[in-house]
Amino acid sequence: MSISLTESAARHVSKYLTQRGKGVGVRLGVKTTGCSGLAYKLEYADAVAPEDQVFESHGVKVLVDPQSLSYLDGTELDFVREGLQQGFKFSNPNERDRCGCGESFRV
After folding, report:
1. pLDDT at residue 68 above 70?
2. Which of 17, 25, 80, 97 has the fewest CB atoms nearer than 10 Å to its CB?
């Protein structure tokens, strides 16, 4: 099982955690929603929960709850800038379909 960050994503997370003045890394998960069934959850984490699976990529911790891990195994998180848009982009090998609006996915 693995979850990774690109160098760009790791730099962005590290910079944000430094600006916040606290945090141990980023928490990644999935929730049931949208027209395809699942959506990604991403938030900055201030502590590691006992049940968290912890991965480290480019010096940044990625925390994943056990229920989300099977949906996210092998996922790489990138931070991209395209024109005036910027944000995190998920590359998940388990994704079989994505809804037209881009808000949810199916495995």
Report:
1. yes
2. 97
